[in-house]
Amino acid sequence: MQRITRSIIINRPLFSNLTTRRFYSDGPFGGSSNGGAGATASSRDWGEKERAIEGQWARINDQQKLNMLRETIEKQKIATGEMRKDIEDLKEILDLKKKNQ
């Protein structure tokens, strides 16, 4: 018995467990009757699903970018407000110096 088991293991192709087997039905090259081997990739439902997933990813990505931009704008508004306050303070100091001269 051991000889048979060993010979089966030895004679088995090296990468047989790593490959995926595809089984097709009907048609000369398999697949469905309307498309053959590439019918899944070209079917309308598959394409619609793929577009929907890509659209969802794009919306999420765009929303993340918009949120980052909004945060940047808020930070810039705060910085601009601080600069305006500093400018007003400097103008007041200059006005006081002019009055004292």
TrEMBL record:
Residues 28-38 have a biased composition (Gly residues). Keywords: Mitochondrion. Residues 26-49 are annotated as: Disordered. It comes from the Eukaryota. One of its GO terms (cellular component) is mitochondrion. It is found in: Mitochondrion. GO terms for molecular function: ATPase inhibitor activity. Its main location: mitochondrion. Belongs to the ATPase inhibitor family. Inhibits the enzyme activity of ATPase. This is ATPase inhibitor, mitochondrial. It comes from Lichtheimia ornata.
